[in-house]
Amino acid sequence: ITRGEGQRSYKISNDSKAKVIFELFEFNGLAELESKRNDGLNISFCQSRISHQPRFAGVKHLNRLENVLLASEPHLAGFHEAFVFDDEDYLIEGLSSNVFLLKEETLSTPLLDKAGVEGVVKAWIKSELQTANVFFKEKRLVRDDILAADAILMTNCIMGICKVSSIDQCHWKSDDAKLNVFLERLNLDQVSF
């Protein structure tokens, strides 16, 4: 959705009509997607930070220039995804995904009140959690929380729900047994996107 056509200006004219654009693309990445789901994701950390804009926090919009710059960081070549932090060193999201950390019996995800995108799969998981007997928190998370997690999940509407299997090319100590029990309790173990 765009604001439509208008004069050269940031100001939206009163007679402007929104334009809705739909695009369909052939999906050619099925083998890679199945590999990600079966083997897990190889993740790194973005070096640059994302800025705060509370008015857009949680909203998916067309002005994702920061994410374009983050994804262009040379050291990220060969990684499936990367953790994105804000300028206060709080975890916000993945480059194109939301992040969930499982620690003991609690599932946590970053609080997106200053930056980040509230993805469709994240919103769906949150709605599923309302009826499950699971401890869930949206809170400020830091790098140490990632490293201390029993398991890490990354989600988006293309890959669905994927576990992290390595961070910076080092095998991640994901507690798959605990993760599988947790996913079964939420009826997420058989989810297909």
Q: Can you characterise this structure?
A:
With 193 residues, this protein is an alpha/beta fold. The chain has five helices and nine strands. The chain has helices spanning 30-39, 65-71, 120-129, 143-148, 176-185, and strands spanning 41-45, 81-85, 91-94, 98-103, 106-110, 135-139, 151-156, 160-167, 170-171. Strands 1, 2, 3, 4, 5, 6, 7, 8 and 9 form a nine-stranded mixed sheet that branches. The longest helix is centred in the first third of the chain and has 10 residues, at 30-39. It is globular. The relative contact order is 0.16.
Flag low-confidence runs.
none
What Rg is obtained from the alpha carbons, in whole angstroms? 18 Å
Categorize the overall geometry. Answer: globular
The succession of helices and strands, N to C, reads: HEHEEEEHEHEEEH
Strand content: 15-25%
Topology:
Blueprint: H1 30-39, E1 41-45, H2 65-71, E2 81-85, E3 91-94, E4 98-103, E5 106-110, H3 120-129, E6 135-139, H4 143-148, E7 151-156, E8 160-167, E9 170-171, H5 176-185
Parallel strand pairs: 1-2, 1-8, 5-6
Antiparallel strand pairs: 2-3, 4-5, 4-7, 7-8, 8-9
What structural keywords apply?
nine-stranded mixed beta sheet; about 190 residues; 5 helices; globular; about 20% helix; about 25% strand; alpha/beta
Outline:
The chain is built from five helices and nine strands; from the N terminus they run H-E-H-E-E-E-E-H-E-H-E-E-E-H. The protein is an alpha/beta fold.
